[in-house]
Specification:
With 656 residues, the protein is mainly β. It is built from 6 helices and 45 strands. The radius of gyration is 26 Å and the shape is globular.
């Protein structure tokens, strides 16, 4: 067996973050009669932008403020952007915000004396004091030294706090923050042929492991907001403390978990999700949507985190060195044969040579995930399985279309009609009918397909893991104006979708009146009058019939993540598909995870694998079983149009 590697693949794996715009953010507790400046983060007896009296918040000077409609809690706060705040022109007044609204989870916005936009989340109110988390967009305080905000696997990008977020010895990892290295430095990759350096562009890093020993990670690159390093193989497992020193100043210690093995696979766009980087073991050619992988083919997957490899901590060494810490690798839920897993030659870069099972299902988004011996999953990616341009059993021959848009702008339209029956923890069943239209421009097809309906091929599951951070990175989408959109039911009754552009540009919604959708399903024509970005169109969404019946719905009221989740159903439209989705959030609401799987309705059953559920946080959540039909539509101004009709059954529950 040949262990193939080339410099192109190794360098493709090193994803360099783009510097983010500077925002001022933090947490502040205000006593009665304290003024707070959103421009500087400072408190004072007078002045500032807002004065907390002990019962109300009053704008000061030329500052204005108001509560943000439709936003509440930490999850909503993470979605607030400057553009959203700017859209609420009438929200900003000089009137005080009363105590009656300043309760825990309330979000208010401020336009500062300096003309900047900011927002605050109330996290505690005690007597006459109030605690807020705040963000002011487009400003930053002068740092007293380097600041570390995140330590993550260079490939998976899995946020801290999840079961699969540790950093293994020998891993290529990223330190994200500010003031980490020379601000004029460029992201120039260092050659490992002569050994990676321990200092670069004025920066150095030290890690104190759980034994108290200090190790010094070598650099691949160093820029002001990101450092790419290799964790030395002699680092002990457990909680470690990392510090960055630059310009004679040392950052506060940042804690992270060192684990024996925590593999992260490389993705095509460097996001840790979407299309995986897979190459031909002989030619090194990349597989893609237009050059899919035939079942039974041997491919090479790339990434980092298999485990320690002391011979290659900082120097290229071509000899093969197995690191056999992945117990399983699944493609489309079918186990693939691992031929080799271990060193690629380059420091911190691993490769896994696998043979795709002949029984692997075909499609453009067939799931890929590995699992360690202790049951810890890797990140979740997809592979195009088939011959030539991939063809998906749900969506048809999409390979050429997807490949055309990969890595470039793509304009996507989605029309969704949904009949939902929800069973909350209280058991009080409710029924709702809704119509949604979304028109957006995306930077990459992985984002576009996800926004167009969470597409995964039959037999596959995808997973998303999120951590709530102040001013977190928004989905890279731009809303498109499609004008007035209406929908009619089979009886001819019409409803108009309302634009919610102030919160989500390019999105139109309508809660449909009772009886608009009946159990008979049928064809529901949509009409778009056309707007500034999208021309006039007509499209039809077909709602499934007969209705889906979830025969073991009570199983989802209590989910044991380590056991998997078996689901059974009857009914549903012939030849259609069932989408199984769900998610949970941690008790502190800081971490959330979700999954989506697809199965043919004719199967009557599907089990969500334990390795999918394992990466979700313990806490409250929901599971939804939906019978969906898909079709495409065209409209001037978009590249891809997807129409989805869905009958959904939703069960609230706990994830243990």
């Amino acid at each position: 067996m040949r262990i193939a590697v080339n410099l192109t693949c190794a360098m493709l794996a090193l994803m360099i973050p783009i510097a983010a715009r500077a925002d001022l953010k933090g947490t502040q507790t205000l006593a009665a009669n304290t003024a707070f400046s959103f421009d500087t983060g400072a408190t004072s007896a007078t002045g500032g932008d807002m004065l907390w009296s002990g019962t109300s918040m009053t704008p000061q000077g030329k500052a204005t403020a108001g509560n943000v409609p439709g936003f509440t809690g930490a999850a909503s706060f993470a979605l607030v952007t400057q553009s959203i705040l700017q859209s609420f022109g009438a929200l900003f007044t000089s009137a005080p915000i009363p105590a009656s609204t300043l309760v825990v989870n309330d979000i208010f916005a401020v336009k500062t004396n300096g003309g900047n936009y900011g927002a605050a989340l109330v996290t505690a109110v005690s007597g006459t004091s109030i605690t807020i988390q705040y963000i002011t967009f487009g400003v930053s305080s002068t740092p007293s030294g380097p600041t570390v905000t995140s330590v993550i696997n260079n490939f998976s990008y899995t946020p801290a706090g999840f079961s699969n977020s540790g950093i293994a010895p020998g891993t290529l990892f990223l330190v994200i923050g500010s003031g980490l290295a020379d601000p004029a430095a460029k992201a120039v990759l260092q050659s490992s042929a002569a050994g990676l350096p321990n200092t670069l562009n004025g920066a150095s890093v030290k890690v104190v492991d759980s034994s108290g020993a200090t190790v010094t990670p070598p650099f691949y690159y160093a820029i002001s907001n990101a450092l790419a390093l290799v964790l030395p193989s002699n680092t002990k497992t457990g909680t470690a403390q990392l510090t960055v020193t630059f310009n004679g100043q040392t950052s506060a210690a940042y804690s992270f978990q060192v684990t024996t093995s925590e593999m992260g696979f490389d993705s095509y766009d460097g996001s840790g999700t979407g299309l995986a980087v897979a190459t031909n073991p002989v030619s090194g050619a990349l597989y893609n949507y237009n050059n899919s992988i035939a079942p039974g083919t041997t491919v090479v997957l790339w990434g980092s985190g298999l485990g320690a490899d002391s011979a290659r901590d900082n120097t290229y060494l071509p000899a093969a060195f197995p690191i056999n810490n992945l117990a399983h690798l699944y493609v489309g839920g079918v186990e693939a044969q691992i031929l080799y897993q271990g060193a690629s030659g380059f420091p911190g870069v691993n490769q896994v040579n696998v043979t795709i099972s002949p029984s692997t299902p075909t499609g453009c988004a067939v799931s890929l995930a590995g699992v360690t011996a202790d049951g810890t999953p890797t990140n979740f990616l997809t592979l195009p399985i088939g011959t030539g341009a991939c063809s998906d059993p749900v969506f048809g021959p999409l390979g050429g279309v997807l490949q055309t848009f990969t890595g470039s702008k793509v304009r996507v339209g989605a029309l969704v009609l949904e009949h939902t029956t929800s069973t909350p923890a209280s058991g009080n069943v409710s029924i709702s009918d809704s119509a949604v239209a979304s028109f957006s421009s995306f930077n990459a097809i992985s984002s576009a397909t996800s926004a167009a309906g969470g597409i995964v091929s039959l037999g596959s599951c995808s997973v998303t893991q999120l951590i709530t951070t102040i001013g977190g990175t928004p989905n890279p989408r731009t809303g498109l104006d499609a004008g007035t959109i209406t929908v009619k039911n089979p009886a001819g009754t019409s409803a108009t979708l309302a634009s919610i552009g102030a919160i989500a540009p390019g999105v139109y919604t309508s809660l449909l009146p009772a009886g608009f959708i009946t159990s008979a399903g049928g064809a529901f024509p949509f009409h778009g009058a056309g707007g500034a970005d999208v021309g006039a169109f007509d499209a039809t969404v077909n709602l499934p019939n007969p209705a889906l019946n979830w025969t073991n719905q009570s199983t989802a009221s209590s989910v044991t993540r380590s056991a998997g989740l078996p689901l059974t159903w009857t009914g549903g439209a012939a030849g259609s598909y069932v989408t199984i989705s769900g998610g949970s959030a941690s008790a502190d609401s800081l971490r959330s995870g979700s999954f989506i799987c697809t199965a043919p309705v004719a199967a009557g059953q599907f089990t969500v694998p334990s390795y999918v559920l394992a990466v979700l946080p313990a806490g409250n959540g929901t599971v939804t079983l939906a019978n969906s039909t898909y079709s495409s539509f065209t409209a001037p101004g978009i590249d891809v149009g997807l129409a989805l009709g869905s009958v959904s059954l939703e069960q609230a529950g706990t994830f243990k």
